[in-house]
Amino acid sequence: MSVESQENLERAAEAILARESVITPERIRELIGHLRVVPMLEVSADEGESLARRLETRHDVTMTLGSVLVERDFKPWLESAQASIDGYYWDRYRRLLEQKHFSPQVIGTLHADTNRTLGLLENPATPEPWNRRGMVVGHVQSGKTANYTGLICKAADAGYRLIVVIAGIHNNLRNQTQKRIDEGFVGRDSARLLSQKEDKYIGVGRYDSRRRPVTFTNSVKDFSKEMATGVGVPLQNLNEPAVFVIKKNYSTLTNLLDWLREHNALRGGRTIDAPMLLIDDEADNASINVGYVKDEVSRINGQLRELLKMFTRSCYVGYTATPFANIFIDPETDDEMRGADLFPRHFIVSLDPPTNYFGPGRVFGDEATRIVRHIDDNEDLLPLKHRIDHVLVTLPPSLIQAVRTFVVARALRLLRGHQRQHCSMLVNASRFTGVQGQIRAAMQQLLEDMQASVRLNAALPGATALRDPEIASLKEVFDAEFSDTGSSWLDVQLQLLAAVAPIKLVEVNNRSHETLNYDDYGDTGLNVIAVGGFSLSRGLTLEGLMVSYFLRNSMMYDTLMQMGRWFGYRPEYEDLCRVWMPEEAEGWYAHITNSIEELREEFRTMAVAGATPEEFGLKVRAHPSTLIVTARNKMGSGERITVQLGLDKQFIETATLRNDTTALARNRIAARDFSLALAKYGKPIGDSKRATNGWLLGEVPAPLVREFLASFVNAPASVLTDPVPVARYIEDREDAELGLWDVLFASLREDGARVPDMTLGVPIVCQRRTAGDRTDQNTLYISNKQRVASRGIEKTGLSQTAIDGAEAAYRRSEGAADGTLLNYPDRIYRPTRPRALLVIHLLDIMPSLVKKTPVYEEAVVAWSISFPESQHPQMRVDYVVTTTWMRENFRDEFDDEETEAELV
Prior knowledge:
single chain, 904 residues, alpha/beta, Rossmann fold, 8-stranded mixed β-sheet, 7-stranded mixed β-sheet, globular
């Protein structure tokens, strides 16, 4: 049957389902059974079942309402104003979302979320001066643009006359945002507005075009005074709302400010009276007032403040997915934070993603699917650290494997009926445009060779086709990656030509004139491999992304998460997605995913307790994961940087150690002396309870713990385990919650195959860990993922009742039914701990997973601490780092930022 018949049937079924309140799998199949015999809708039984599964997945998507923090004296206004609001713009946008197959439940939640955010703005009908500052925290690639487009529509309906969207710092990001605003709010192709061509109605304009928002920018050109003046209507005289989509750039913002002063300020004054909404997309990027790269970034921050002050009635709403580097952690003191002009002092909204969101938790978290593949063959060909003039001789084998995986995955999507859907691959392996060009050229040759082999031999019988080395290599990929997808290799082989022939390579950077214009391929789908750097690292959406090759070494939390272009929505092909990255990068992503989720849980708890945005801002600043970000933001402020952090409900461990004989020996002595001190106190390890994961002692007094930490030689690179602030934190709480401790001497079960270590007077079967790739003569990194303890260790010492309660609460928070098997994150056990847990690790450090001879003759000692919930979370301790240390450990991050800034 034709693809057209399948698409007609899908549209017809969706039109009927959109009017039904209860949609079940049985109802979907009943409907398809009635429709598929109608001429123009006729499809086979198998095609009908495939569509039924697709609709079932789509309509099974749910979305919950997020949490909100609001200032305590806020007075609601929206409910009483609703009767006078004509929902013209929102009604059009809702119809567009329905046409894009958003489930009714997701649209309903988006409606509630945007209503709530609108209600936290000021009533635009209020005549006296006002200003409000807020923030919306979403997830990377989770639909923030859809959310703020909905907010724009509702703000326009409510009476906001001017809407400014501050988009990305690159032209392609701004242009992409403009197209989405055109589609969801304006209803016309803005590129045609100043031409003599007839208006082209797009998106919402196809449903109703009676009213026309005025746009002063278009999808191919940023704001200019000439174009804005050409519109010819002062803002005060507009009958419909005006919208600007502005690049986050100093020159562009200067032009906007100058034009507003020249043409729109009130006569005799310097302000504009029209109610204005400023949407700051990616609010953590360039909007914050930071200390490094001070001139450029702080200028943009100042311009945003100046723009807001130009209006007597204004609202600022920052949208971000990375709350670590945002506007409330960079001031020097808490007092400055409270006074910061862009601080979201009036409200913060946290958005929950739909259940079909393919986010960090699924890729790197405790519920992660196994889609990550490690890159370990690049150093001789394309090192992580390379110069701008690096010469690429040939592609790393892992990149070749990734390209083949993309081709096979696209063939599988064709078998699933995705002929007209976009399919993309991302290659982000260098920050230098010259190197990106070399990668593209080498990949172009690889792709052409692959296309030639497939064209010549893929149609031959199976065994004959496999004589072609390229066809054989593609089959090896299928066997390794996709043999459990329900399709056979012979079926895939027959689709290879259709899969590989349309694929094109695009270089995405400031020197390339190639574009990722998915709209031009709406009827056929764009099949593309995008090679780039910074533009692919923030904001730019790759439609239908399946395979990513990520060879970057950033450790900055916000940078890493924003580089995660592979997050988003992968309907019916989530199982085909793969991500290649260094093992160390996967470890950083896992750590950041856990840290962000901790803050989101804290946000939910504080929202229930009625906390304010300021109180949450203080909590974010006290979180250990802000240490690196804060220090980076203050790189220009001096040699010593002091950051006040809290260890409430935190887990810290010595995953980085001094790598010299003296330090390692002193740490073994520290562990032995600790065991002797415990025995002298009356708690010998041999008399302790033998837990499943080692020897467990309870009610150990805090002074013994502090003595051990003080005698342990900490590595300078391991800032969070600095014994001075850790000991101070313990000492401040020693008379109460941290007076007594649980101590675990971790040990594997004896199996007779390994000789136990007797350093501590009891048999300890050492845990095996590998030495990380960055290990050198000065520093030992415990594995590339920088993790010492095993999963589940933090429930050690808890009663079964406490464990069951923590896991039940987690299931409820995840919407999972009782009895559902989950991989529980260790963080859920910390609030239930009656005592802190210190874990002493004795490790056999192996050169690799396959080599079984330890690097060191004697065991390496490390430690971990799980801190319980504190009754005094506001009490913090000072951590001090130096700019020298930051540059030694994160030099590439600063070089990367500076290089990219030059490329803008």
